[in-house]
Each structure stands twice: as structure tokens, then as C-alpha cells.
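Hi support team,

I'm filing this because I wasn't sure whether my run with zinc ion finished correctly. The job status page said complete, but I'd like someone to confirm that the output block is well-formed before I use it downstream. Pasting the exact inputs I used:
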Amino acid sequence: MSYYVEPEYEQYAKAIFGNTPEMIEFFSKILDYPFPWDKYAQVVVRDYVSGAMENTTATIFYEHLQVNNRYLIDDNHDGIIAHELFHHWFGDLVTTESWANLPLNEAFATYAEYLWNEYKYGNGDADAWWSEELSQYLSEAETKREPLIRYYYLDKEDMFDSHSYAKGGLTLHMLRKLVGDEAFFTALSLYLKKHQYQTAEIHHLRMAFEEVTGEDWNWFFNQWFLSAGHPELTVTDTFANGEVILKVVQNQNLTYSPLYRLPLYVDIWTNGKKARHYIVITQKEQEFRFKTNQQPDLVFFDGETQLVGEVNHERSIEEYIFQYKYSDKYLARIEALVRLSDQINENEQVRETIFLALNDEYWQIRQEAARAFEKYSGEKDTPKYINKLKEIVLKDKKSLVRAVAINALAALDNQSSEIYLQTVNDSSYAVAVNSMYAYANTGGANVQDVIEKFEKEENFLIVRTIAEFYSAFNTENKIEWYLEKMNKRAGGELLYLLDYFANYLTNQEADVQTKGANLLANKAKNDPNPTTRVSAYLALKRLDKVKGLKEILQEIRSAEKDKEALNYYDMIKE
Ligand SMILES: [Zn+2]
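And here is everything the job wrote out:
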């Protein structure tokens, strides 16, 4: 087991990669298949084309994995580490037979992120991952709907999309919910053992599930792996004569997508108790009836929240409040909270529910509740909310909750700024950054002194914040600071800094502008990346007090050899 990083990150390598041995143990156990290779190395490189690559026994990662312990308070890289590791079974041990079957590699590696989250951090983190992946897929599906297994694609790169990854991972999760954990992991193990050191296609996976469960799974694989699209459902529920009538309509365009067969649960809550019903949707329009002795508190569709698709099921404010308070599922509760937060100003009962959520066991729910209070513009009970938010910014054990609570507190109380002098020293970068903004926005004294203390930090969140402050406040004598930070960076981070630097320079006198112009001209001519050269050129162009600027710009344009950059210069010529 080895980790390769640049010398200055050696001291953090174990903090970054240190969960790897436990991941290997966990994955080996659930797959009933020990790690198949005799060593595992993880190597960080510069300027890599993507996030990572699962070269057998020597995974490569891009440089953004190199972070310090302070960064790791807010976030970690377990997801990508678990993903590449899982490829050592799904991808390296059993390899997709053809590019068309790429989800046999990527869907599994993506799902490994869920599995690790669930095992290590609990179902809140795993389910938060689930809903993030679903949004990713649904947003891609607005412009692209392909079968997961695709024999027709224009470019090999087209397969690296939120179908192969996100939808693939979510589809495996649905399959797991359908067959149960024992059958699911036994089938994966069987698939690995049958096809080890060989290639496989999607039907081999189906047959492994069929062998383990004794059931036919063509219907599932056909609609989810071999067809495009997803269910778009409208669900309504009504209560009459001792019956809940649930109506489900499949609205997806049947020319491109299948009519789905969807086995799932409907939870009917009465008197605070849940009764679970199993249904199988098979028709375009279908009605289900459930005997209930009274009007239910809530009818909750897809009780396990596992369906990959869009479900439009309207509920009242009261039903959402009930859903937040009574559901035992993270996804149901966060859905309710997000819906309710739009009503924080209008409805006191809603506001009190969100206030309650500031104490929730799940940190993502506390964070969402704090975010909702940022939108509160009323007068009523403000001191109570302010006190609670103050307690959170100082004491919540999750840094990302403290960070969001700072924004909410600053929005509710724009008078007192002292507390941010305390929180700006929080161990978390996210908290420190939000504290800087909050301190400035609430009129704190000597903002510049507070900011300057962070000048030596290399964390990009901090650097970007300082760059923005110095340009907004026209802080004197900061040109050297910008130069130093820009010289250490490349790619997207550098583009941000170039932009702030140009903002900064436009408000400076001729001598400072000229000094900055030299640096920008140098970048515009010599940076190896054409995008950076063009950005430096555009930044330079904005400086109005530099003598001979026209000639300098002309010189840069004539020295340029990159075709796209030249086209761009032609396009923007006045
Ligand atoms: Zn992958």
C-alpha cells in the first residue's frame, strides 16, 4: 500500500488516503472476493486529463487531491478514492467486453461511493449522495437520453457521462432494493468469480442475478440498461369511503422510452403510524386502492425513495410538515424541508418546523434549515432565531453547518459583527471564509486587518476570497500578493485570479497598472495554456492607464500561434 504525493504534502498523505485499507477490507468482504492484486499504489500527478484513472494497482489522481488537514475538516476525497479502488474488481478484474458496455465498469465504481458512504458515514451521507447523483442525471437528461448500454455513440468520450456514471449507479441501487442485500451481493460475487480476468457484457450480469434469485430479470435490464429515458410520473391520492385511491400516470414519451414496470412501496400514515403497501405499476394509467379507517396524515409514494425518475406528487403544507416530523427516512425528511423552506416568511408553523430542524440528527438537514433562515425577512421571533444561530455557529460539530449558519446569522442580525472575529479563527476554511464576508457585511471595523491575517494561506477558497476583497476595497500595495498567488496556480484557479487581478488594477493609478500590465503581458505571451493566454489578454485590455497598451496587445496577437486563440482575437477586434 503506497501513496505518492509532492514532498510538501507528504505529511498529509495518510490523512488524504488513509481510509484505503479499510475500504479494501470492506469491499473484499461485501463482494466475498479478496482484493485481486498483490499491491495498491495511489499516485497524484499534475495536469491530468480527468479526475483519476484506475490503472491496475497504480491509480492516478489529479493534483486537487493534495490538500492539508484543515481542508479535510470540511471535505474529503473518499468518493473518488473508493470509486477507483472498486474498479479493481469492476473494470480491472472483470472488464467491459466493449465500450458499449462501459457501465459495467463505471456504474459499479460510482455505486461504490454510495456503499462506502453508507458503511462509513451512515445513511444520511449515502442518501445525500443519491440525491446529488439523481439531480446530475436528470439535468443531463434534459438534453440527452440514451440507453446505458449503447452501441451507437459519435465519440468514445460521449460514454463518460451522467448516464454511465450517475444513472448507472442509481440503477444498481434500485436493483439492490428489489432483490435485497443478500441476493445483490451474492450475485455480484458470482459475476466476479465467473468472469474473473476476462471480459463481460451486460447479459452476464443479468444471468448472475437470475442464477442467484431464480427469477427472470430481463424486464428490469431491458427497461433500465437497454432503453433510454426514465419514468415521469404524476401521482395523486384521494380519500373517500374508507379508501385511499392512489392514481399513477406514466407521462414519459413512449416513442423513446418504455412503459415501465415499477415495483415499489406506498406508505400510508394514520395517527402517526406507517402502513407499508407493495404495488407494481405496469400501465400507463393505474389506480390502487387501500382500505384505511380514516383520512391519512400522509400518503408517501416510493417509500424507499429509490426510483430513478421524476415524480410529481403534490402535498399540502400540513402533509410536508408531517413528513418532516414523522418520516424515519433522510430523503423524505430533507425533501419536506426543502419544500417548506419556500414558506418560511409566510407560515409560522412552517417556520417553527424549520427551527426544530436546526437540531436535527442529520447534519445536511441542519444545514438546509440554517440555509432557509437566510431567507427569513420577518420580525417575529427574530431574537429567538438569532440566539439559536449563534449557538450553531459556535458549537455545531459539523463545519459546513456552522458555515451556512454564519450566512443566516448575518442576514438576520446585521448589527453585531463581533462574533465573526471569533468564528473567523474556526478550524474550518469554509467557516473562516463565510466569517470574513459576514464581518465585512455587518460593518465590522478594520476588515482589512482581519483579511490580511490569511494572506499566507494557499487554500483556494481563502485565496479567492482575499482576491475579491482587495479588488472590492481597492486595498493599496497588494500587487505583489496577487503576483505570488497567480504564479503558483494554473487552470481554472488561475483564470479566477486573473479576473480579480484585472478588477483590482482598473482602480489603481498608472504606475501600479503598468506594473500589473507587465505580468499580464508575460502570461498572455508565454503561458502554455491558450485559455490562460486569452484570459490574460482580456484582463490586460481592461487597463486604461497603461501607455502603449495598443502596441502591447498587437504584439501579443501577432505572437499567438494557437488557432482557436487567433480566431477569438479576430472575433473581438474593434
Ligand atoms: Zn470510473
